[in-house]
């Protein structure tokens, strides 16, 4: 890598000085670690599945049962849900602490470990009691006090890439967690902001190229979130399969029993049957690239 070349995203000097902990030490350097019995950074491609937001106790338990039956490794669901605008309604809402309790119930009922988003420093301890992985959402990727506070819990951390941030910025965010001694860090690509997205309702494009690009310079696992990136359910399957082919170390998917009536972002979830069928195809693509689900 030429550290003098103009326009380069990550330079050799960055790897030495800006994020030495996130940087690869050799071409075959990969972080391999266990979270709740699931291995990251090796042959297995963990799958995170569930709704955008937790809507009720019965629903999240039903979702957990169904995604587990189809082979998901983690239940995803937002108790604290960042929304672009401040307004809430009977349909468009977040359950906050109540939702955390329902996630805990779903884990107790099914055994599925939990990944959920943390938005505020004041809620870190409450979320850490329930979550097996603490998710830093795209909007908080550069909320460095929050990153530091979450890192200090010792819980594994997933950092979603901000839709306007470079690979260099993303690795800088990871360094804030690593420097606190928390080595279980996962990166998640969830779409970038561009002038054209091929559909008026789609806000981002999935940056598949960042998966191998990140893996060239960092040892950290790189996960893909085709649901948030495409914002359109019919595109989720091809982008999921493409993510696996591109080398993704995990897949995050929105799954809902009635997508059109989802409380948040109803255009992107897939239903139980679609998820089950997609898992079969994912296994085939994973096998083709010498990985497993």
Q: What report would you give on this structure?
A:
The strands form 2 sheets. The chain has an 8-stranded parallel β-sheet. The protein has a two-stranded antiparallel ribbon with strand order 1-2. The radius of gyration is 18 Å and the shape is globular. It has a single domain, classed as TIM Barrel (Alpha-Beta Barrel). The longest helix has 17 residues, at 272-288. 35% of the residues lie in helices and 13% in strands. It has 10 helices and 10 strands. With 293 residues, it is of the alpha/beta class. The protein has helices spanning 12-17, 57-70, 97-110, 124-130, 144-151, 167-178, 210-217, 226-230, 233-245, 272-288; strands at residues 33-35, 38-40, 47-50, 74-76, 114-118, 133-136, 157-160, 185-189, 222-224, 251-254.
Q: How would you concisely characterize the structure shown here?
A:
This protein has 293 residues and is of the alpha/beta class. The protein has helices spanning 12-17, 57-70, 97-110, 124-130, 144-151, 167-178, 210-217, 226-230, 233-245, 272-288, and strands at 33-35, 38-40, 47-50, 74-76, 114-118, 133-136, 157-160, 185-189, 222-224, 251-254. The relative contact order is 0.15.
Features:
293 residues; TIM Barrel; 8-stranded parallel beta sheet; two-stranded antiparallel sheet; 10 helices
Could you say what the CATH architecture is? Answer: Alpha-Beta Barrel
In the sheet with the most strands, the strands line up as: 9-8-7-6-5-4-3-10
Structural class: alpha/beta
Q: Please trace the helix and strand order, writing H or E for each element.
A: HEEEHEHEHEHEHEHEHHEH
Subunit arrangement of the protein: single chain
Poorly predicted parts: 2-7
The largest sheet is: 8 strands, parallel
Mean pLDDT equals 94
Q: How far apart, in Å, are the first and last alpha carbons?
A: 33 Å
Number of helices: 10
Binned strand content: 5-15%
CATH topology: TIM Barrel
Number of strands: 10
CATH superfamily: Aldolase class I
> Any idea of the CATH class?
Alpha Beta
Any idea what the shape is?
A: globular
**Total count of domains:** 1
| Rg (C-alpha, Å) | 18 Å
Helix amount, in percent? 25-40%
């Amino acid at each position: 890598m030429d550290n003098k070349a103009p326009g380069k995203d990550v330079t050799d000097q960055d790897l030495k000085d800006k994020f030495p902990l996130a940087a690869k030490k050799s071409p075959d350097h990969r972080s391999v670690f266990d979270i709740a019995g699931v291995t990251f950074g090796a042959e297995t491609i963990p799958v995170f599945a569930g709704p955008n937001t937790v809507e009720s106790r019965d629903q999240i338990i039903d979702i957990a049962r169904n995604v587990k039956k189809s082979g998901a490794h983690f239940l995803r669901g937002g108790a604290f849900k960042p929304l672009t605008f401040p307004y809430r309604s009977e349909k468009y809402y977040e359950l906050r602490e109540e939702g955390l309790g329902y996630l805990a119930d779903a884990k107790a009922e099914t055994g599925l470990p939990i990944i959920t988003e943390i938005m505020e420093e004041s809620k870190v301890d409450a979320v850490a009691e329930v979550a097996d992985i603490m998710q830093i959402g795209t909007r908080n990727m550069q909320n460095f006090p929050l990153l530091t506070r979450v890192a200090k819990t010792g819980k594994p951390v997933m950092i979603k890439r901000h839709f306007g941030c470079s690979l260099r910025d993303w690795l800088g965010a990871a360094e804030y967690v690593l420097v606190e001694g928390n080595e279980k860090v996962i990166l998640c690509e969830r779409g970038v902001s561009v002038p054209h997205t091929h559909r008026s309702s789609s806000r981002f494009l999935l940056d598949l190229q960042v998966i191998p690009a990140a893996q060239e310079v960092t040892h950290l696992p790189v996960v893909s979130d085709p649901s948030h990136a495409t914002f359109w359910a019919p595109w989720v399957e091809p982008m999921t399969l493409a993510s696996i082919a591109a080398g993704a170390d995990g897949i995050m998917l929105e799954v809902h029993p009635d997508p059109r009536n989802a409380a948040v972002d109803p255009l992107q979830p897939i239903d139980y049957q679609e998820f089950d069928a997609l898992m079969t195809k994912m296994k085939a693509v994973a096998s083709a690239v010498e990985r497993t689900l």
